Amino acid sequence: MDTTATTLPSIDLRRVDINPDFWYPIAWSKDLRRGKTIGRRFGRHPVALVRPQDGTVFALEDRCAHRQVPLSKGVVEGEAVKCCYHGWAYGRSGRCIDVPYLGKGKLPNGVKTYPCREAGGLIFIFPGDAEKADAIPLPPLAQVDNPAFKTRHFSPAVGCHYTFMHENLMDMNHQFLHRRQMGQIRARFLGQDEGENFVEARYSFARSGNQQPLAERLIFGKHVDDPNRVQPIEEVVTIRTTYPYQSLKIHDKDGDLIMELFAAYVPSNADGSSCQTFGLLSVLRPKTPLLIDIIWPALGVFTNRIFLEDKAVVEMEQQAWRELGGDHNVEVFPIVNKLRRLLARHGVPHEDAPRSHRA
């Protein structure tokens, strides 16, 4: 295995935009009531999501063609949304279908529309080439439809480029960061795999102290530290980036799936320096009835504390990138370098990236 420090000499990964030719979650279904519209963003693109009283959700550019006022501030009537300013109305095709003070034969052009779908409690849009949308599948959404699992939703905003999030989860060697929450554990790298559109790393964890979080103990059982023998592999943790999504799966020693995470990191501003996370965390229900409901609040607190530590450190990375004027990371872990190449290969150079980064 090559363990030399390698970088991407002609590409600053933080100047690589996410590829728009995929389905991206942009809101939770529960946040958009019938007969209402809400505004969201995909990178530099504002998006209005509209849910008619009858029919499916549709997505439009969140700017009225008239004065550029957000359509998400408008009023939903039937299968259309009316701009709050002058009442211009747009249907799900994006075409302007009414201007109250003009004749029907004098209607202006409409606004951009995005293919839109709902699945797993999420609203997805396809922000790229709309003609590709039907050929691109939605990603697997953890175990959200499996009654044997209970699924938690989370959607924190993070002030960093989406690639920092991929690196953070893929590199399990950062458990020192979580020592207050997880106790003393050490990641053991078990192997890797890669293909044209994915990179995968597998780990187990050795506990070097007796402290074990309550939520972890209730879900996985008690792990006892025995300094007189090599600790057995109790669970295998598999982290996989299948561009542009990321997943984490935990299998027990018998090979049974006991936890699965789906995560997508959606750029939320024009320069890519922040992203909105959409995650589904599915946990296998214990055999004891109602136990999962009893421990669910504790699991929520535990996972939230872990994430807040990750959020703080990736935002520090983003700040360092900003102050140094570029990506100065010296990466020594081979699987992370493979991940970086994957993200660079499938991404799109940002519009203000130097020419060498666009090559």
Approximate helicity band:
10-25%
What is the total tally of β strands?
21
Radius of gyration of CA atoms, rounded to a whole number: 23 Å
Q: What is the overall number of helices? A: 6
Shape summary? globular
Order of helices and strands: EEEEEEEEEEEEEEHHEEHEEEEHHEH
Q: Mean pLDDT, rounded to whole units?
A: 88
CATH homologous superfamily (4th level) name of the largest domain: Naphthalene 1,2-dioxygenase Alpha Subunit, Chain A, domain 1
Would you state the CATH class of the largest domain?
A: Alpha Beta
> What is the SS-derived class?
alpha+beta
- How is the main sheet built? 8 strands, antiparallel
CATH fold group of the largest domain: Naphthalene 1,2-dioxygenase Alpha Subunit, Chain A, domain 1
Distance between the termini: 29 Å
β-strand amount? 25-35%
Unreliable stretches (pLDDT < 50, length at least 5) are 1-9
Number of domains: 2
- The CATH architecture of the largest domain can be named as Alpha-Beta Complex
In short:
This is Aromatic ring-hydroxylating dioxygenase subunit alpha. Residues 23-125 form the Rieske domain. Helices cover 20% and strands 32% of the residues.
Structure description:
The chain is about 20% helix and about 30% strand. With about 350 residues, the chain is an alpha+beta fold. The protein has two domains: about 35-115, Rieske Iron-sulfur Protein (3-layer Sandwich), CATH 2.102.10.10; about 150-359, Naphthalene 1,2-dioxygenase Alpha Subunit, Chain A, domain 1 (Alpha-Beta Complex). Strands 13, 14, 15, 16, 17, 18, 19 and 20 form an eight-stranded antiparallel β-sheet that branches. A four-stranded antiparallel β-sheet has the order 3-4-5-10, with no helix packed on it. A four-stranded antiparallel β-sheet has the order 6-7-8-9, with no helix packed on it. Helix 1 (about 160-170) runs antiparallel to helix 5 (about 335-345) and helix 3 crosses helix 4 (about 290-325). Keywords: 2Fe-2S, Dioxygenase, Iron, Iron-sulfur, Metal-binding, Oxidoreductase. InterPro entries: Cholesterol_7-desaturase (IPR050584), Rieske_2Fe-2S (IPR017941), Rieske_2Fe-2S_sf (IPR036922), VanA_C_cat (IPR044043). It holds the Pfam family VanA_C. This is Aromatic ring-hydroxylating dioxygenase subunit alpha. GO terms for molecular function: 2 iron, 2 sulfur cluster binding; dioxygenase activity; metal ion binding.
